[in-house]
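Amino acid chain:
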Amino acid sequence: MRTPWPGFKARVSNRLARHFRSTPLRLSGKAPMVSFTFDDVPRSAATVGAPMLEEYGGRATFYVAGSLVGQRSEHGDGIGPDEIVALHHRGHEIACHTFSHRRAVELDATSMAAEIAQNRRCLEGLDASIRLENFAYPYGLASIARKAQLSSTFRSSRGILPGVNSGIIDLQFLRATPLINRDIDDDGVERAFAETEATGGWLIFYGHDVAATPSPYGCTPQLLRHALEAARRRKLPIVTVADALRKVGA
């Protein structure tokens, strides 16, 4: 059977990218913390997920692709412009996910720069105080060339390779653990927090929608609350990606 070339190329590119640190940073191992991030972004992440984080004194990072704003997808209705501004004013971070949600491996330097510029115009144009400081790779797929390019534009880029960020990390390939019902359960959440405490590292969760019946890439409010309770029980600060980077001096 033939392997689809674009998918194979993307996987190989991503595997190579994760082994070449373009922007290494050593964490102290003494300040464990957790970030909750939402990709694309479905409306339920803003209307259900964000208020839950606020209950626990936390804020999330929302990686938004401008072309998906106000659009319906498999994750449900997309977040609207007014909701993006409201999240920003409540202290949540608005971050970049390209404009058209294309995989980095499909983009050359010129087209990636155009994607970023268009997304900035779309999102920063909603409110003069919004600044896109951080990036997430659509579909979690990176490339060595785009990592180097992004390092001159964003403080960090996040993938979807599971694990806790600890020791020497790559700011342009941050690890992230799925907070997605089909991929993790309560015990898995507890193990992720246990590793975070043991290493003094930085745990990043990612997901999409937050709903009683989530999409294959989303979570229930119950799973999100379990993770928030776990953070509170361990006294781990819940911080945006931007705030986490400030805490570690990046």
